[in-house]
Design brief:
With about 450 residues, the protein is an alpha/beta fold. Helix content is about 25%, strand content about 30%.
């Protein structure tokens, strides 16, 4: 049967996509329904029809899934953040394991054991970083998050994923914005001053960082804003980031410290880490420690290894392993993150680590020119995965093991297939739920040289 827009159909929800949308089939046609839960029987209202699929919304839940629960957030259906808040956590973990397995088998065409997801003990209030886009409404500053697949801001008060201290920061910004007659940045016109309110909090120390991202170089009533923010518990750093680009990138290239320190400090697995606004740092402290523990186990360190940590960020993975290796080399593109990595090594009295600023491929080639042989390579790339040419350099480095940490199952599966062609077979995959109540899942993989296992 050929479905049309505005048709109502009865649908049984069978599974979920990698983006967290539910999917069912009607007369062999896939129908995607955001907000449904596997096991639901619903009446779906079709809002879009294409040749191969339909998109629908829930008109009525005829029989709810045993895994369906009532969301405890009033805006979760509109906000693009907690799209899994209407299902049990057990079902969420099952979905995430299946998501990783599906990617590895369907995209990578590999048969590799995928262990059960390492679930989080805390599924609320776990995020140590928030980036709030802002808008003005009736003369009031409102902060929130983007609606699903849009840049339409959904105002959010008391987001359950964020630490409660973030709400206190937002209240200060709202009062200041009203007094200073602040304008919010408009993506359509390129006008307006305040673009984002960017917050970080170190869980182990309680230190806070606030960064105002502006379409300009200064803030009106700046001293008054600093006075009220600096009075908040744990406040360590207040920064101003200038971003005048016509783009969706949140942070611009220039950040100045208005008050306090340039960085905040956290502790991971007994190591101290200084974190700057631009440096990558995992958003979930407790799950990060579990992830890094698994990564160290997979690395199989004895104290005699040379480890190359590619996409090293502020050096967190490598530095947590540094006591168990002979030499550590880190490669990172962001200059500020490299500075952090060097500072972090010094903070922890680590003298066997060296960090390079550069593109992953360029940095790996530089190590190759220096004749560096790697026993273990750590890969923790951004969502787009690794540059294909990088694997040629890694192959020539001839490590015994590769530990691949990924935030995107699809690009991970693609890269695992390429590495298999280069002689590195995935041995085991462990997903870690770094982002509870969202569709995202972090994954760590052990790969070994095929000749070692033959």
């Amino acid at each position: 049967m050929e479905w049309k827009k505005n048709d109502d159909i009865q649908l049984h929800i069978e599974a979920m996509t990698s983006e967290g949308a539910a999917v069912g089939r009607c007369d062999g046609v896939a129908v995607f329904v955001r907000g449904a839960v596997p096991g639901d029987d619903i009446t779906a209202h079709i809002i879009k029809v294409s040749k191969r699929y339909c998109i629908a919304v829930i008109k009525e839940i005829i029989q709810p899934s045993p895994s369906r629960i009532v969301s405890d957030c009033p805006v979760s259906e509109r906000c693009g953040g907690c799209s899994l808040r209407n299902m049990t956590y057990a079902e969420e973990l099952r979905y995430k394991q299946q998501r990783v397995l599906d990617a590895v088998t369907r995209i990578g065409h590999l048969t590799v054991p995928v262990k059960p997801v390492i679930g989080a003990e805390r599924i609320d209030g776990y995020r140590n970083k928030a980036q709030y886009p802002v808008m003005m409404k009736n003369g009031e500053l409102q902060a929130g998050f983007y609606a699903y697949k849009s840049h339409r801001i959904i105002p959010v008060s008391g987001c359950k994923l964020q630490h409660r201290a973030f709400e206190e920061c937002l209240d200060v910004f709202k009062d200041w914005a009203k007094k200073a007659k602040i304008t919010a940045y408009d993506e359509q016109t390129g006008k307006g001053l305040l673009r984002h309110i960017y917050l970080r909090r170190a869980q182990a120390t309680g230190e806070m960082m606030v960064c105002a991202v502006v379409n300009g170089t200064a803030l009106p009533l700046q001293e008054e804003l600093i006075e009220h923010l600096s009075a908040l518990e744990g406040m360590k750093s207040i920064c101003l980031n200038s971003n005048t680009q016509d783009s969706n990138v949140i942070l611009g290239d220039k950040t100045v410290t208005l008050w306090g320190s340039d960085t905040i400090e956290d502790v991971l697995l007994g190591k101290r880490f200084a974190i700057s606004p631009n440096a990558f740092y995992q958003v979930n402290h407790d799950q990060c420690e579990r992830l890094y523990t698994i990564a160290a186990d997979y690395a199989g360190l004895t104290g005699e290894e040379t480890v190359v940590d590619i996409y090293c960020g502020a050096g967190t993975i490598g530095i947590t392993m540094a006591d168990k290796v002979k030499r550590l080399f880190g490669i990172e593109l962001t200059p500020q993150a490299v500075e952090n990595a060097r500072k972090n090594a010094a903070l922890n009295g680590i003298t066997n680590a060296e960090f390079f600023c550069g593109d992953a491929l360029e940095g790996a080639r530089e190590l190759e020119k220096r004749g560096i042989h790697a026993d273990v390579v750590i890969l923790d790339p951004p969502r787009k995965g690794c540059q294909p040419e990088l694997f040629d350099v890694i192959q020539r480095m001839n490590p015994q093991r590769i530990v691949y940490v990924s935030c995107d199952s699809a690009t991970l599966a693609r890269d695992l297939a390429i590495l298999a062609e280069k002689g590195y077979a995935a041995q085991e995959i462990t997903p870690v739920d770094m982002f509870p109540r969202t569709p995202h899942v972090e994954t760590v993989v052990l790969l070994s040289r095929s000749d070692i296992n033959s």
